[in-house]
Amino acid sequence: xxxxxxxxxxxxxxxxxxxxxxxxxGDTLRGQHRxxxxxxxxxxERLQAEDQKRPxxxxxxxxxxxxxxxxxxxxxxANADEMNTLMKANKVSNPHKAGEALEVTMxxxxxESCPAGQQLMVGVIQSQFGAKLPITEAERPVLQLIxxxxxxxxxxxxxxxxxxSRSQEERRTVIMTAxxxxxxxxxxxxxxxxxxxxxxxxKLMEGVGQKIALLIIQQCPTYMLQLGIDEYMKxx
Length: 236
Fold this sequence. Notes:
- The protein has helices at residues 2-10, 14-20, 32-53, 61-78, 80-89, 95-113, 115-129, 139-160, 168-185, 187-194, 202-219, 221-235.
- Helix content is 77%, strand content 0%.
- It is elongated and about 65 Å long.
């Protein structure tokens, strides 16, 4: 499951960008937050327009990378005056490096708050892991049952207090608790499907957990994508 989560950001080349320049935390540059909001909103609008032409969730990884790169470039150009003002106001000595750091932060925000950006990532994950984690017709109804239960738990938690307003550790705890709760509640159909003895097989159950994570990303992606952001930020 952890590998799937980390792929949320690395699969679109975000890791390479981060190696060149780590995301700027908080409001490192005065006016940075407002600028990132503006460019991310522009990116989201353009991705929504792309989604109207062809569903972003159906794109290959190569096409997704191409669209994301073009969207970043065009969105920054559309806000070039504000970016130049930002760099001059903060007396940035290396605008290129600072710009790369801002790009990474923009992508993280896009994944967190833009439905079209989320669909782009979901499509990449599906194309990379769908064949590697095949779900049989016998498995699907049971795993969907667990997935629906987990998503309901996460929706209830989010309604109580927005997941995005919680700390990274609290988000991770809530998500893992929901996953465990969903599996425990549906332990009987799981045991009937895989056999009680096989439930003790760690490798088998790890694969089951990965399949459930994949289905959760398809059904209620926001939570897992946020977890992906958190995992990325911990490893940057």
